[in-house]
Design goal:
Layout: E1 2-3, E2 10-11, H1 19-34, E3 74-75, E4 88-91, E5 94-98, E6 104-106, E7 108-109, E8 112-113, E9 125-128, E10 132-133, E11 142-145, E12 152-155, E13 167-172, E14 182-185, E15 191-192, E16 197-200, E17 206-211, E18 216-219
Parallel strand pairs: 3-4, 9-11, 10-12, 11-13, 12-14, 15-18
Antiparallel strand pairs: 1-2, 4-5, 5-6, 7-8, 13-17, 14-16, 17-18
Length: 220
């Protein structure tokens, strides 16, 4: 009688094992094969190359653990909407989380964690004298803009990449906006009061912009 290497199945020996015993050995072996699940003693472990995951994989409410690391493929854009709620992913080299409202929340900004934006009691200020594209991870609220050297454009972040109610105050701090206007522009397909940009041309003027967390910026 032979014994298999991995499941230790007792197999009948052809021309030796008699009919009733032959049938019994086969039935026992096939029963164990039928219930095998690749755990120890029940077959060979399935290698990673044997997995062909081509759709979402449910863990049935359980969690993976004892992972060495998790490596993400970078997404071409933020994952928003009901179908992506509670997702963690990477886009543009930064880590994001989609919250319960389906909005993208940026967690990292380059080599740093995104911190909480300033409160209205202590506004964080950044001063610029050249074009600026505001990162979704930026914490400043007040932008002091010096256009004495020429016109400047400030690009707001995608509204979906910042919290609902995120505000920026843009100030002509040098008093040259009439000669050298400040253009505030959208990114992507967002709107600023229904348009794509807004021009500030009043000396020492200041305009506030508030996002809806989806696709719109509004002037205050």
């Amino acid at each position: 009688m032979a014994t298999t290497n991995f499941m230790n199945l007792d197999l009948p020996t052809p021309t030796v094992t008699l009919g009733p015993q032959y049938a019994t050995d086969n039935n026992t072996a096939f029963t164990l094969v039928d219930e095998h699940d690749h755990t120890s003693g029940k077959g060979v472990a399935v290698p990673s190359s044997g997995l062909n995951i081509n759709a979402n994989l449910s863990f049935g409410g359980f969690k993976p653990f004892e992972l060495l690391a998790t490596q993400f493929n970078s997404q071409g854009a933020t994952l928003v909407g009901a179908g992506n709620i509670n997702s963690v992913y990477v886009t543009g080299g930064n880590l994001y989380f989609t919250n319960g409202s389906g909005n993208a929340v940026q967690l990292t900004d380059g080599g740093s964690l995104v911190s909480t934006p300033a409160t209205f009691s202590t506004l964080e200020i950044t001063s610029i004298n050249s074009n600026l594209t505001i990162s979704a991870g930026a914490t400043f609220v007040f932008i002091a803009t010096d256009t004495s050297g020429g016109a400047i454009q400030i690009d707001l972040p995608l509204a979906a990449n910042v919290a609902n109610g995120r505000v920026y105050a843009i100030k002509d701090s040098a008093g040259d906006a009439n000669a050298n206007p400040i253009t505030v522009a959208r990114q992507g397909s967002d709107f600023i009061d229904g348009g794509t940009s807004f021009e500030m041309d009043s000396n020492y003027g200041c305009t506030w912009f508030i996002g809806d967390g989806v696709s719109n910026w509004y002037r205050l």
